[in-house]
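USER: I would love a firmer grasp of how sequence relates to backbone shape in proteins. This is the protein in question:
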Amino acid sequence: MNNVIQNILVFSALAIAIVFLVKKFLWKKSKSKKACGNDDCGCH
C-alpha cells in the first residue's frame, strides 16, 4: 500500500513539474497590439 501512495506522489510531482516547464518555456503569450495612450499604463 505504501508503494502505491509513493508512486502517486512521484508521478504527481513529475506532472506538475512538466506542466510548469511547458508553461514557462513553450507557452507563448500573445502580446497586445495596443499602443500606449495618454493614460499611465506603465508601458513607457
Summary: The mean pLDDT is 82. The two ends are 58 Å apart (CA to CA). The helical segments are 2-26. The first helix runs from residue 2 to 26.
